[in-house]
Amino acid sequence: MPKNNNRPVFLDLARIRLPITALISIAHRVAGVVLFLSIPFAIYLLDLSLGGRLGYNHVQDLLGHARIKIVVIIIFWALAHHLFAGVRVLLIDFGVGVERDEARRSAWIIAIGSSVSLLMIAGILLW
Amino acid sequence: MVIARAHGLKPWLAQRFSAVYMTAYLLFFLIRLSIQPPHGFSEWRGFMTSPLMSISTLLLFAFLLIHAWVGMRDIAMDYLHSFKVRLTVLSLIAAGLIAMGAWLLLVLARAI
Q1: N or C: which terminus of chain B has fewer CB atoms within 10 Å of its end residue's CB?
Q2: Residue B103, C-beta contacts closer than 8 angstroms, at least 6 positions apart
Q3: Which residues of A touch B111 (CB under 8 A)?
């Protein structure tokens, strides 16, 4: 394939301007990896909570710690974003919102929805 | 050496189907727990080990592990171009997912 060496190459992260759809997609991936890494912790907590009264109380103590709460907030935020962005992908698979303007609008809705869900999750867990 | 060709349709369908199931489980779980939050250990255990919930949870993790496998495999195929590195990383992920599945089976079997 002939190479066009005159194409501009922007590898400077500060100069790259990605459309909102791309940012939503990258965040979908990152959130997916976060969720993958959190599976063992979920199984561990389920094991403790079902193992006996002591374990159940231990889980409640653990979830009361500020540092663990922050981790839990991040995991639930990742879950919310991954879920919203996934529903958007499913709708696009069914032909809903494929056009560029619609896709950008739905991406903005996801961005706002994720931000609102972060506030809600933090609100529920911290108050 | 025979290398399995990466056909795209089956993993694509598995990703979508598992996503729909997990969303349904999550909605049911959140609604049920907010309407009737379990008070204390025995109510929580009774809820999670009921036939409906233990089977649904088992299915949830089966779909979750498949979903995670397809997702991590897609990421590995996008960013890891060296065959050896990709094979190593994917083997570790597969081993991890199988171990998590076995662990969950043990957890549920012990609790019931």
Answers
A1: N
A2: A40, A43, A47
A3: 50-51
pLDDT in tens, B4-23: 665 688 999 999 999 999 99
The closest alpha carbon to A125, from A65, A79, A82, A84, belongs to A65
Å between A53 CA and nearest CA of chain B: 6
ipTM rounded to 2 decimals: 0.91
**Residue B24 DSSP symbol:** H
Instruction: Determine the structural domain holding residue B74 and report its residue range.
Output: 51-112
Return the CATH class of domain A20-37+65-126. Answer: mainly alpha
Q: Please state the three-class secondary structure of A1-47 as a single string.
A: CCCCCCCCCCCCCCCCCCCHHHHHHHHHHHHHHHHHHHHHHHHHHHH
Query: Across the interface, do B44 and A87 touch by the CB < 8 Å criterion?
Result: no
Distance CA B31, CA B54 (A): 17
Among chain B residues, the shortest Cα distance to A46 is held by B107
* Domain tally, chain B: 1
